Each structure stands twice: as structure tokens, then as C-alpha cells.
UniProtKB/TrEMBL annotation:
Pfam families: WS_DGAT_C, WS_DGAT_cat
Protein name as annotated: Diacylglycerol O-acyltransferase
UniProt superkingdom: Bacteria
Catalytic activity: an acyl-CoA + a 1,2-diacyl-sn-glycerol = a triacyl-sn-glycerol + CoA
Provenance organism: Amycolatopsis australiensis
Lipid metabolism found in the keyword field: yes
Family: Belongs to the long-chain O-acyltransferase family.
O-acyltransferase WSD1-like N-terminal domain residues: 5-270
Signal peptide: none
């Protein structure tokens, strides 16, 4: 039987255009060890691990006439050096130059005729650092059979990469005739699906709004969403093809102190800090904010698979990410009250779901946040953009150093994709005592994303100094 894309995976291909590439990214910054960390060593490391990720050597093949959804086939011309590329900044490269390059890389679509991922080894950073920028299409990572590349190449202990000898033999691609025959055979069993496949390919994403109740999780939440659509404002515009990217570096201990002082969870404090920053950002744009003004955030969270009590291996995360809608109280001037509102809203969702605690997530092997951010983007991509203003993903990572070969990971910033009418997406990852924010914005609508990044730092300081 052909390895056919799921309806959700196919929809990510159908909705993609030059302004909204459907890939998730990551920026990993490494400290180069004394023994060195070269492009050749990275090729060996990734090449050796691809045996565990067969999807990364497969490409999408369309079925003639769109009689069925596309299929995954082995790329008979697979070239690792095409997917893992080398780049450099003019020395000594600054973080600003790196993030400007990241914005340009993320704005470009992945080549549809090749496996849908790329990695860039970027040298020249000041302080003898190197960066690895990854791009992986949302149709690739499902969290069950395939995880994100960034999760697989990181280990909890340094190890010298061994030279890699590629002995992979691709399977022969099916002919167009075979693809049609397979589609007809499946169509006989499910004739209605043939019509739906043609309609989905010819039009837009397949019935995203119809998945609202299932993805958001709960009839009551769905009814509230339909009755009260997301507020309008500068975050919800038709995005352009350009991107801007900025980051925020904070310490996990600060979030824990705020949690201890005012209650809630670390995730509540993260959302409250973002809320305060969005408030100041909107005011800087002379937006009118009433005391009850809100910004609706889509907050994907990992949930426990009912059949899996514990996660034990990197290849078994379970495609279980629920996307919760949270109204962030940007009209509230008091930072403690903002935190309270966010905490109550999140508690309401978590009481009715199957949340996986941060401790549970940390049991997943490798650097799980890379995969969990991808799954969060999948959950967001299956929803209509009219029901939320901004996506915020937050995934806890290991609090011990991680290594790619012998190179120690210093920082990791997620790069979340933009939907057609979302000008901003925020990814958050905690790692080794730090909490790292990646802000991906539309170059026209969110040109001042650097200003927002600074406001997140100020909002966190405001929470640290807040009293009842």
C-alpha cells in the first residue's frame, strides 16, 4: 500500500504559498569545543541519525488528477549536502546579523520536489560560536513515526562524531500509472474521498473550521469562540512574504520566584509576561485599550495519550497536542491581576484536559521541545485563523547541557510559522536554566518586533517587583 499523506498533512501543502511557508524552524547556538566543530562533522552526525528518520529521505509525489492525496516516496536523488548547507557571517558576526539571516531563511519555501527540510551550519559568530538553523515542514513531523531533527542530533553527553558511510538504498519510485491504479483501488472502497481530495487540492485547506471542537477541546470553549470571535487589531492582517525575527533571553529562576510569590505555574508567568509586553506594544502603536481588552492566544499544550502512561523514547511522543484558546488581559494595567487572570484561564483548560506536566515532558529522550513546537504548529495550522490573534508555544527542555557531537548547546530559539492572518508567532523553550523566546513576525505588520522583545524583558521585571 502507498505511504499516503494524512488529510491534515496534505492540507499543509495545499494552503502553502509564498507568503505563508508551512515550516517550523529552530535556531541552536553552540559553543565550539577546542577539538573543533566543523561542517563535515555535522554532516556525519546528521547522516548517521537519518536512519532513525526515514521521512527525511522521502519526498512528496502528487497523484495525477488529484484522485488521491499525495504519497511519500524515497528520494532516489537524495543529497545530504543539499539539505545541510554551510553559511557564514562576516567575522565577528553579531546576533543581530544572525537573526536577520534567520528571518530571510525562514521566509523561503522549501523545495517541493525534495524532502521537506533544510539545515544551515552558520559560522563566523563572535565568541567562537556556531549556529544551526533548521527548517522542517509541518507535514513531516507527526510526533509518532517522525520527530524533529533537532531532537535527534542532541545528546546529554559529548561524543566525537564518527565518519559516516551512507549505505542507504532508496526504493524505486512508483510510476504515474501505479499511482492512479492505487488511487482507483482506494476510491472504490471510499468513493466520497476522491471528490474531497480533488476539492481540497483545488481550493484551500480542507475544512479547518470543522476541526474546531476537536482541536480546541470542548463544546463550551467552542461556543464561546463562535459567539466571541478574536478581537481585531494589528496582529491580524494579511501577511506578506517577508519576516523579522527577534529573541529574548531570560532566566528560569525569575519565573520560579514569581510563581512562588503569586501562585500559578511557570507557563502562567510566561503568558503573563507576554501579556504585559503586548499591552505596551499596542499602546506604543496608539491602539485604544479598554480595561476589558484582550488578545486571544492559541496555546498548544502536550496532553497525555490515554493509552500511554509514560513517555520513554524519542520516537514515542504521541501525536497528542491540544490547542487551547486563552484571552490575554492586555487591558489590565496591574501585572499581578494579569497573572491571576491568565492563571485562572489556564486552570480552567487543564482541569478538563489531560495535560502532560513539565516533569513528564522531560522524560522524553533527546531535546523534545524541537518536536513539541512542531506539533504545536500543526495544531494551530488545523484551525481557522479568525479565532485567535497570536500563537504562543512553550515547551520545557532539559536543565542539563546537551551536545551535538562535542559541541555544547548554549541557546535554543524556536521559530514558529505565521498563519495567513497572524502577523506574530512566539515560541518559548526553557533549557539549562534559561528561558528563550523566539519572536517571528511579518516584516510589514510586525516590523517593530525588536521593540516587543524588549518589552517582554520589561514586563518580566515588572512582575518580579510587583506586590499585592
Amino acid at each position: 500500500m502507498p505511504d499516503r499523506l494524512s488529510a491534515l498533512d496534505a492540507s499543509f501543502l495545499y494552503v502553502e504559498d509564498h507568503a505563508t511557508p508551512m515550516h517550523v524552524g529552530g535556531v541552536a547556538i553552540f559553543e565550539r569545543p577546542r577539538s573543533g566543530f566543523t561542517y563535515a562533522q555535522l554532516l556525519d552526525l546528521i547522516g548517521a541519525r537519518l536512519a532513525f528518520l526515514p521521512r527525511y529521505r522521502q519526498r512528496v509525489m502528487e497523484v495525477p488528477g488529484h484522485l488521491a492525496r499525495p504519497v511519500w516516496v524515497d528520494d532516489v536523488d537524495f543529497d545530504l549536502s543539499y539539505h545541510v548547507r554551510r553559511s557564514a557571517l562576516p567575522q565577528p558576526g553579531s546576533d543581530e546579523q544572525l537573526f536577520d539571516l534567520v528571518a530571510r531563511l525562514m521566509s523561503r519555501r522549501l523545495a517541493p520536489e525534495r524532502p521537506l527540510w533544510e539545515a544551515y551550519f552558520i559560522e563566523g559568530l563572535a565568541g567562537d560560536r556556531v549556529a544551526l538553523v533548521t527548517k522542517t515542514h509541518q507535514s513531516v513531523v507527526d510526533g509518532v513515526g517522525t520527530i524533529e531533527l533537532g531532537q535527534l542530533i542532541l545528546d546529554p553527553a559529548p561524543a566525537e562524531p564518527e565518519p559516516f558511510e551512507d549505505i542507504w538504498t532508496p526504493r524505486r519510485e512508483p510510476s504515474r500509472t501505479q499511482l492512479v491504479l492505487d488511487a482507483i483501488s482506494e476510491g472504490v472502497q471510499r468513493p466520497g474521498e476522491v471528490v474531497e481530495n480533488v476539492r481540497s487540492a483545488a481550493n484551500d485547506a480542507a475544512a479547518a473550521a470543522g476541526k474546531l471542537a476537536e482541536t480546541v477541546g470542548g463544546v463550551a470553549t467552542t461556543l464561546r469562540t463562535l459567539v466571541n470571535p478574536a478581537p481585531t487589531g494589528p496582529l491580524n492582517v494579511r501577511v506578506s512574504g517577508g519576516r523579522v525575527f527577534s529573541v529574548v533571553r531570560t532566566r528560569l529562576e525569575d519565573f520560579r520566584k514569581i510563581r512562588a510569590a503569586h501562585g500559578g505555574t511557570v507557563n502562567d508567568v510566561v503568558l503573563a509576561a507576554i501579556t504585559g509586553a503586548l499591552r505596551e506594544w499596542l499602546l506604543s502603536r496608539e491602539e485604544s485599550l479598554t480595561p476589558n481588552a484582550t488578545i486571544r492566544a492559541l496555546v498548544p499544550l502536550a496532553v497525555r495519550d490515554a493509552e500511554t502512561a509514560e513517555y520513554s523514547t524519542p520516537a514515542l511522543i504521541g501525536n497528542q497536542v491540544a490547542a487551547y484558546l486563552v484571552d490575554l488581559p492586555v487591558g489590565e494595567p496591574n501585572p499581578v491581576l494579569r497573572l491571576q487572570h491568565v492563571g485562572h484561564a489556564m486552570a480552567e483548560h487543564l482541569d478538563s484536559g489531560r495535560p502532560v506536566t513539565a516533569r513528564g515532558l522531560l522524560k522524553v529522550g533527546g531535546f523534545a521541545p524541537a518536536t513539541l513546537h512542531s506539533l504545536g504548529a500543526r495544531a494551530a495550522g488545523s484551525l481557522s485563523g479568525r479565532i485567535f490573534n497570536v500563537m504562543v508555544t512553550n515547551s520545557p527542555g532539559p536543565q542539563v547541557p546537551m551536545y551535538a557531537g562535542e559541541a555544547r548547546l548554549v541557546e535554543m530559539f524556536p521559530v514558529m510559522p505565521l498563519m495567513r492572518t497572524q502577523a506574530l508567532a512566539i515560541g518559548v523553550t526553557s533549557y539549562h536554566g534559561g528561558v528563550y523566546f523566539g519572536l517571528n513576525g511579518d516584516r510589514k505588520a510586525a516590523f517593530d518586533v525588536d521593540l516587543l522583545a524588549g518589552m517582554i524583558e520589561e514586563s518580566l521585571e515588572e512582575l518580579k517587583g510587583a506586590h499585592w
